[in-house]
Amino acid sequence: MKTYKHNMVFTGHKSFIILVLLGLITCLSGWSYINDSIETGPYQLVYPANFGNRINVPDDNQTTKQGVYLGRLLFYEKKLSANNTLSCASCHQQDKAFTDGKAFSEGVDHVLTTRNSMSLVNLLWARKFFWDGRAGSLEDQAITPMTNPHEMGQSLEISVKKISNTVTYPALFKLVYGDETITSDRICKAISQFERTLISCNSRYDQYLSNAYQPARQELNGMNLFMNGPNPEKGIRGANCAHCHGGAKTYKELFHNNGLDSIPKDAGIEALTGLAADRGRFKVPTLRNIALTAPYMHDGRFKTLNEVVDHYSDHLKESEALSTFLRGESNDIGGKTLHLRPEEKKDIIAFLDMLTDSTFINDPRFSDPNKIASKQKSKTNSK
Amino acid sequence: MKKYTFIIVALITFFISPYLTKAQAPAKEASVKVTGEVTSALDLKLADLQQFKQTEVTRKDRDGKDHIYSGVILSEILQKAGVTLGKDLRGENLTKFVQVTASDGYQVVFALAELDKDFTDRMIILADKIDGKPLLPADGPFRIIVQDEKKPARCIKQVTGIKVQFAK
């Protein structure tokens, strides 16, 4: 009886409930139409176990799907530059592992930067940013290229105004931060969220480490030289690259004077600390995708990996600040330089080529979203 | 007229000379910052280290030869900063560790109990001299020397920071 009664009540209000439901659906579909089909919720940062979990995500900027979506748009947004011609992606191009192929990059004022554009990869594990490590977070780092007159050259206040005066961005900021207010802090946070997703973990070296790739003989020889320090007394030949570039990520967050000059033009970290031991000392960059990120060094002085290997093998410049592990390392008994053989240099480069991750440079999640949109548009137009 | 010129030049020289010497000021002096779970943070320069009791530790360097390193026992520096050592090193304080950072970004850790003389006789010192001479610039001015440890990896060079932390 009771059941029947309930049914009666339900039937009595059925049409009203249906109306309410219809209304709700209409509202929801309208809302989701604004946001297109943007996924929301926590972003899963996926990486191999051998990368370790010493990751760097600030408590006040946890990675979300909607945050990464917004960050990617801003990363490719030219309105963030003074003359609407440059975005972060101008100097950090995906096909070049997020570098630009130049020694120095041209800013909105046509003046060149003073240091080489750095590869953006596996930043999730980095704690110090820039060639001199002066920024303690991606959020802090992002401010410099946006506001530097020789880079994107626009104050954050103007960027906020320009982004606020768009149709799409205010709704996106609401989706990410809960309200439509656009601030410089929120811009930097979203860009950083996107940058933390730039994870490269599918090079042939990664595949080798997970037993899914058998390196060729030359690659194996190169790998051994890369990993081992030279010990001529024991007949072990090596280049000791792994001392600074070792580990599954080929990145250790170290800062060294690698003997480029006896008297460096660019003082590096010394300019920040005033310490003589920091003279000509710079970040030891990741070697991931190194074959794609020429030219090399903080000033882009070496055009090829051959020149880089030649430098470490034969041309280190002595100075007081030259890091100790680069002194007197040799494959000859009593030798002063590594003195690698020509075929050994080729082997090392074969190993360095194993660090190229084509999945990473072709990953559609990291590409220019405007290009996809314009591609889709032209497709619809041609139809 | 000549007399006035002389006076003017002398005056100008007098006023700008401090700026000239400032421009040629010697580079800054390196120091070690002791921070974290301390009651008073320290910023030790070479001269400050001489105020502590000096201790010597002998160990082999990369050249395979024994060298005498001298400096200060790390726990004595930590004691001065008010770190929980000795009778206070118990309970949750046993989950503390010391993170040592070098100027090149290299970092190593020691459990606090590894440094306490009630736990071990092995000495870990913050050295500033090798065989009576200052450490080489690329090794110093401060280096941790761990007595009898087989690998030299924790004998961290160019130390700039010592931070005491709780394991979480």
The strand line-up of the biggest sheet of chain A is 1-2
Rg of chain B, Cα atoms, Å: 22 Å
- CATH-assigned fold name of chain B: Sulfite Oxidase, Chain A, domain 2
Number of domains of chain B: 1
Give the total of beta strands of chain B.
10
Note the gap between the termini of chain A.
61 Å
If classified by CATH, what would the architecture of chain B be?
Answer: Alpha-Beta Complex
Question: What does this entry look like structurally?
Answer:
- The complex is a heterodimer of chains A (383) and B (168).
- With 383 residues, chain A is mostly helical.
- Chain A folds into two domains: 60-199, Cytochrome Bc1 Complex, Chain D, domain 2, CATH 1.10.760; 204-359, Cytochrome Bc1 Complex, Chain D, domain 2, CATH 1.10.760.10.
- Chain A has 15 helices and two strands.
- Chain A is globular, with a radius of gyration of 26 Å.
- With 168 residues, chain B is α+β, with helices and mostly antiparallel strands.
- Chain B has one domain (28-166): Oxidoreductase, molybdopterin-binding domain (Sulfite Oxidase, Chain A, domain 2, Alpha-Beta Complex), CATH 3.90.420.10.
- Chain B is built from three helices and ten strands.
- Chain B has a five-stranded mixed β-sheet. In chain B, strands 3, 4, 7, 8 and 9 form a five-stranded antiparallel β-sheet that branches.
- Chain B is globular, with a radius of gyration of 22 Å.
- The A-B interface holds A 128, 133, 252-256, 269-270, 273-278, 281, 320-324, 327 and B 27-28, 30, 103-106, 136-139, 157-158.
